[in-house]
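$ run holo --ligand "FE2/S2 (inorganic) cluster" --emit tokens
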Amino acid sequence: MPTVVFHKNGEIYRDEVKDNTNLVVRAGIKQFPFPHLKYSCGMGKCATCTCKILSGAEHLAAPNWKEKKQLGEKLDQGYRLACQLWIHQDIELMQE
Ligand code: FES
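-- output --
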């Protein structure tokens, strides 16, 4: 099971999730890391869920067109849209 380490407001939340987990979906059903993960549309349209990937980015699928449109050059700085990520491996991420 992948371990998710989530940094938010100076706190660090750590939990295991099932393979193929979407963190925005889990926040929506009030599972980890609810209520800490900020999100809105869940569809890659608003960028509210933007997170910086601190480790494990190499295990994520390549950014899709929605992430490219919303994040632009922030993708090169390690940012992704949490609502567009399905977690298969350990990951550490931060939301500002
Ligand atoms: S929640 Fe809107 S882009 Fe992810």
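-- notes --
The first strand starts at residue 3 and ends at 8.
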